[in-house]
Amino acid sequence: MAIKRGRGVAAINYPTGMNLGGDPSQALVHSTPTGNFMVSLSSVDLGQGLRQVMSQICAETIGVPTEMVHIDTADTDTGPHCMGTFASRGTHRIGNAVRQAAEEARQVMLEVAAEELEVNASDLETDGTGNIQVKGAPQKSISIFDTALAAHFRRGRSISGRGMFLVQRSYPDTETGAMKPATCYAHACVVADVEVDDETGEVTVLSVKNVYEVGRALNPAMVEQQLVGGSWMGISHALYETTEPYYPDRSHGGTDFIHYLMPGPGDLAETETIVIERPAADGPYGAKGVGEMCANPQIPAVANAIFDAVGVRIDTMPITPERVLRALKAERGAVQSGAA
Amino acid sequence: MARIPVQFTLNGQEKAEFIESGATLLNVLRDRMGDTSPKGGCQQGTCGACSVIIDGELRLSCLTLAETCEGATIETAGGLANGSELHPIQQAIVDGFATQCGFCAPGMVMAIKVLLDAKPAPSREDVVEAISGNVCRCTGYEPIIQAVLSVSRSNSQQAV
Ligand code: FES
Ligand code: FES
Fold this sequence. Notes:
The structure holds 2 protein chains of 2 kinds.
Chain A: E1 3-15, E2 23-31, E3 37-40, H1 50-62, E4 69-72, H2 90-117, E5 124-126, E6 131-134, E7 137-143, H3 144-155, E8 160-167, E9 185-197, E10 203-213, H4 220-239, E11 270-276, H5 298-310, H6 321-339
Parallel strand pairs in A: 3-4, 10-11
Antiparallel strand pairs in A: 1-9, 2-3, 2-8, 5-6, 6-7, 9-10
Chain B: E1 3-10, E2 13-20, H1 25-32, E3 51-54, E4 57-60, E5 73-75, H2 88-95, H3 105-118, H4 124-130, H5 142-159
Parallel strand pairs in B: 1-5
Antiparallel strand pairs in B: 1-2, 3-4, 3-5
Helix pairs in contact in B: 2-5
The structure holds FE2/S2 (inorganic) cluster (2 copies).
The site of one FE2/S2 (inorganic) cluster has 10 residues of chain B, from loops.
């Protein structure tokens, strides 16, 4: 009986969004009379930072500081339609809709500024700090504040835009069954090092090394936060979490929160996370969805590391000490009867 | 049902209420006193989101009967900031991206405050121990541990 070490590797492709009947999200952008921009969505921020990223996308597109953009996700009854915040789709789907709406609003804004400055809209650019100026002649300029006032009080224009992003439903080819379930994929590779106690069946994840390909990290600190938390969650899925430990038999399922096991702050594996950016052709500023994908590759990596350590393949999650011991026992039985 | 009076100090303010016997401190704080900073994650003592400090000790407000708090001094996350100036622990959590959905944070900061009040320069093991009763679904804990250690580093720099 001994503590054995093993190393496992896993790599995944992970689709952004879903595609069972089409995957739409819509957005509306409009300016206030003083040139701040409201983005109306019914997409919900679950805490992952959707509002921050949407305000960045809108601000970048219109050409204003992020502080001039407000995100209103108030009400799914009255907001523009969104399928929801799930399936790693928020940044990509909603971001594309916001970008399109912001482009239209920017165009109106430049048209109003052009009328005020008596130039062509195509000759104008934004300076990123809240002003619109003539390309090559920045002394000829108007603030977005004054442009919005002009639109509202003199020109009778609404500086606004509509955005809609739809991934069409993909039907399987009747001949081959082939279909296109996703338009963009994020990728990840993980190396996990584990220790397995072959007497107790206990698995300890010593370290995980994660490499994630995320398209483009629109907010690098928030991307890292998602990936670090996700990596921990992946280990938790691999070794700890379940509501039905003997599924499909429902006995011994937890009945209370206290029975739902997760690793605590004392059970952390040494974690290293590297981000690779390869902008997606159809992502807003190249972004892909990484919400779910970051918690997936640890599971096969840990299972492979356990195989490397003690030679048993466990294909049911979570990989509890009981499952490891049963697998080891079965393996020994097979070896013994093979020898006899 | 008969109501009973209870008085205590909440974040420096005298509070008095008539409450139902058996009401938890969590419910009284949230529903009767308008302090929604303690969160009811599980209401059974397993998640730590409802953590508050009662007479200097970390307690789970979901398992504390409000009527037992007569005359007590209670601190919650809602009282930590000084106006718009965050408490150093809160600031470190913001700076270190150590909260995501934020549901665990009000309990987490109280657990951390009790630790740092007793031990301004704790070891990593001390931090792990101190937050081990607080569940976080999002961060993977490491950013929280790092945030606490950063506060303790600046504490020890000030002490020098
Ligand atoms: S709500 Fe009190 S411990 Fe969870
Ligand atoms: S930040 Fe979401 S539970 Fe801790």
